């Protein structure tokens, strides 16, 4: 399902674009002489995100972004080298703004992890094309780093090692991503097949009932809850995250007891 890869462009150039001006004081001095630039990186990125949100990654191209901005495609290349770097900029843009994290910094570690899980889920829900970008080598921009710093801060003062802290964050992130991926595929399957979700399972129901009546599948036959398989994506995600955090909590209690 992966269509694009993070970090596939000129990583050095992407980092320059991401971190330009970050941490530098506002001078308030006069602007440099010369013609004003028609575009800003912020405007380019937000336009690209809007295109991807509307039409998916298939709609995202430098030519389409340029058309939306009413500029020539060669003019767009003056700001962003290629689509690969643009995707990295889009990912970091969606991980922000970092200021929103400040209101949650003083909460307990479990609340912060649940907030993190819900935030990741919301990100995929609003921008499902992100699930089609391979991000094992995400370029670390300011918003991405701020999010990681926030998540790791949840474990300050605990008995966890640094390696365990990063492992917990990764486990939460991977679980949310996995459930979101399965949920998205389920939604897309109705668009690419002849049957709706209800019609698909209705066709199979007589065969399943006959199979269960044979006694060959006793565990399935024991299920009496009609909604046994009806959990939506968010419910499944939160159940798994809470189970994971329960285990972490028991580990911490055991260490304190020891």
From TrEMBL:
Residues 61-80 bind DNA. Keywords: DNA-binding, Transcription, Transcription regulation. The keyword Transmembrane helix does not apply. It comes from the Bacteria. Pfam families: TetR_C_1 (PF02909), TetR_N (PF00440). Residues 38-98 form the HTH tetR-type domain. This is TetR/AcrR family transcriptional regulator C-terminal domain-containing protein.
């Amino acid at each position: 399902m992966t269509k694009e890869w993070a970090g596939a462009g000129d990583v050095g150039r992407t980092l320059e674009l991401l971190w330009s001006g970050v941490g530098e004081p506002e001078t308030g001095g006069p602007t440099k002489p010369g013609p004003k630039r028609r575009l800003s990186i912020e405007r380019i990125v937000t336009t690209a995100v809007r295109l991807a949100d509307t039409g998916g990654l298939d709609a995202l191209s430098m030519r389409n972004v340029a058309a939306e901005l009413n500029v020539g495609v060669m003019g767009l290349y003056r700001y962003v080298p290629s689509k690969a770097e643009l995707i990295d900029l889009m990912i970091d843009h969606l991980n922000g703004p970092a200021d929103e994290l400040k209101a949650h910094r003083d909460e307990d570690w479990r609340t912060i992890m649940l907030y993190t899980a819900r935030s990741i889920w919301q990100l995929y829900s609003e921008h499902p094309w992100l699930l089609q970008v391979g991000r094992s080598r995400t370029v670390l921009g300011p918003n991405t780093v701020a999010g990681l710093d926030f998540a790791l801060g949840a474990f300050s003062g605990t008995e966890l090692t640094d390696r365990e802290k990063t492992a917990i964050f990764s486990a939460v992130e991977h679980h949310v991503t996995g459930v979101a991926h399965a949920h998205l595929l389920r939604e897309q399957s109705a668009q690419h097949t002849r049957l709706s979700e209800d019609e698909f399972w209705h066709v199979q129901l007589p065969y399943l009932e006959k199979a269960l009546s044979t006694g060959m599948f006793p565990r399935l036959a024991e299920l009496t809850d009609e909604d046994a398989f009806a959990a939506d994506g968010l419910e499944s995600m939160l159940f798994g995250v809470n189970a994971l955090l329960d285990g972490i909590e028991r580990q911490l209690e055991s260490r304190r007891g020891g």
